[in-house]
C-alpha cells in the first residue's frame, strides 16, 4: 500500500515537471498527467474483473510492477514524442496496483474486525511511507541536477514492491483462529497466513 501510493504521489507531484524538463510545453505536460489519471481509473476498474477469475492475486502484483517499471522507464528516457504511450502503460499499471492493494485488505482478512485493523495499519503506515516519495524525489533531483538518479530510485521502489506484494497476493487470510495446522500440511497450503 505504501510503496504503490508513494509511486502515485511521485507521478502526481513530478510527472509534468519531468516532461517539461525533457522539452514538453506546460499544457502538454498537464495533459500527460491527465492521461495518467484516466488510465489509473481504467486499471482500477480492471482489477475486480481480473481478481475474481483467480484466488491467487500474485500475477496482478507482477503485472503491476512490470507495467509501472516499463512506464516510468519510458516516460523518463524514451524519446519525448513517445511519452503518451508510456503514460498509458504507467497509468494502467498504477491503477492495477492501487485497486489490488485495497482489495488485499478485504481478501486477506479473516473477518470484518481484522479487515478494520488491516485497513488502519495499511493506510496509516502506508500513507506515511507514501508522503516521503515526492519530497525524496525532489531532494535527489536538487542534489544531482537531473532526473536519472531520482528515477533510478523510483525504479528501485518498484522492484522492492514485488516482495510484499507477492506475499500479500498468496492465497490465505490473517487473523483467523490460532489452531494447530493439520499434520503434514503447512500453513500456506491450509489457507492460513500466520500472524
Structure notes:
With 195 residues, the chain is an all-alpha fold. The chain has one domain (2-169): Up-down Bundle (Growth Hormone, Chain: A), CATH 1.20.1250.20. 75% of the residues lie in helices and 0% in strands. The chain has 7 helices and no strands. The protein has helices at residues 2-21, 26-51, 58-77, 83-108, 112-144, 148-160, 162-169. It starts with a helix and ends in a 26-residue tail after the last helix.
Short note summarizing the structure:
The chain is an all-alpha fold and 195 residues long. It is built from 7 helices and no strands.
Largest sheet: none
| Rg | 18 Å
In total, the number of strands is: 0
Structural class: mainly alpha
Mean pLDDT: 84
Topology:
Elements: H1 2-21, H2 26-51, H3 58-77, H4 83-108, H5 112-144, H6 148-160, H7 162-169
Helix pairs in contact: 1-2, 1-4, 1-5, 2-4, 3-4, 3-6, 3-7, 4-5, 5-6
Give a quick set of tags describing it:
195 residues, mainly alpha, Growth Hormone, Chain: A, 7 helices, 75% helix
Amino acid at each position: 500500500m505504501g510503496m504503490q501510493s508513494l509511486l502515485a504521489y511521485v507521478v502526481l507531484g513530478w510527472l509534468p515537471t519531468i516532461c517539461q524538463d525533457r522539452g514538453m510545453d506546460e499544457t502538454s505536460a498537464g495533459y500527460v498527467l491527465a492521461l495518467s489519471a484516466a488510465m489509473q481509473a481504467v486499471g482500477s476498474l480492471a482489477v475486480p474483473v481480473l481478481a475474481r477469475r483467480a484466488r491467487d492475486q500474485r500475477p496482478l502484483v507482477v503485472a503491476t510492477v512490470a507495467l509501472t517499471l516499463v512506464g516510468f522507464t519510458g516516460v523518463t528516457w524514451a524519446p519525448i514524442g513517445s511519452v503518451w504511450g508510456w503514460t498509458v502503460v504507467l497509468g494502467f499499471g498504477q491503477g492495477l496496483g492501487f485497486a489490488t492493494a485495497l482489495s488485499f485488505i478485504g481478501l486477506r482478512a479473516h473477518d470484518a474486525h481484522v479487515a478494520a485493523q488491516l485497513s488502519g495499519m495499511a493506510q496509516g503506515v502506508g500513507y506515511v511511507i507514501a508522503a516521503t516519495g515526492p519530497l525524496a524525489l525532489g531532494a535527489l533531483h536538487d542534489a544531482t541536477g537531473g532526473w536519472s538518479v531520482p528515477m533510478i530510485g523510483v525504479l528501485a521502489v518498484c522492484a522492492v514492491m514485488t516482495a510484499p506484494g507477492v506475499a500479500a497476493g498468496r492465497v490465505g487470510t490473517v487473523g483467523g483462529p490460532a489452531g494447530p495446522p493439520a499434520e503434514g500440511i503447512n500453513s500456506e497450503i491450509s489457507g492460513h497466513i500466520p500472524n
